[in-house]
Design a protein that fits this description.
5 helices, single chain, five-stranded parallel sheet, Arginase, Chain A, alpha/beta
Length: 181
């Protein structure tokens, strides 16, 4: 949040980058958070703003940290109403369902018409991640990158979670290769 850290985050790199881009360019920015854990701080920071869209694909907060935020009915307030879009995922969500949800997120992003995209790339959605319960594969990460590349936006990718250290490098490589980086 603006005044409290939590969830492994001392500095919110995505929020810092989004704020700076808006300040420097006057354009709109989307933060797409695909980490298993909902980005409650990022959501709160931009919840009442219409120049930064926050889109999050994450484990359902009824069972996943931070438990109290990230529900689909949280859509923003004031000028920011409609600028927040949460997609809580059921346990064991695998590639096809994950990519379908990500495609819906991409449609929301395209409709917002941002000038830049910031991806909080959490790889803790991986099928063997020891602290999460989704089931995305390495191939799923590659397909995710390819899907987001189709938006054609200048993109900053920030690595977030991912705790299967044996697979982490392979999954980052797959995502970036899919994206065309």
């Amino acid at each position: 949040t603006r005044d409290l850290y939590g969830g492994y985050c001392f500095f919110n790199n995505a929020a810092i980058a989004a704020h700076d881009i808006v300040k420097r360019t006057g354009g709109k920015v989307t933060v797409l958070d695909v980490d298993y854990h909902h980005g409650n701080g990022t959501q709160e920071i931009f919840y009442d703003r219409d120049d930064v869209q926050y889109v999050s694909l994450h484990g359902d907060p009824r069972r996943a940290y931070p438990y109290f935020t990230g529900h689909a009915d949280e859509t923003g307030t004031g000028k920011g109403l409609g600028s927040t879009f949460n997609v809580p995922l059921p346990k064991r969500t695998a590639d096809d369902a994950y990519l379908s949800a990500l495609s819906t997120c991409a449609e929301k992003i395209a409709a917002f018409k941002p000038t830049a995209l910031i991806v909080s790339l959490g790889l803790d959605t991986f099928i063997t991640d020891p602290i999460a319960d989704l089931a995305v594969t390495t191939e799923g990460f590659s397909r995710s990158g390819a899907l987001l590349a189709q938006l054609g936006l200048p993109t900053i990718v920030l690595q977030e979670g991912g705790y299967d250290v044996q697979a982490l490098g392979r999954n980052v490589h797959a995502w970036l290769t899919g994206f065309g980086a």
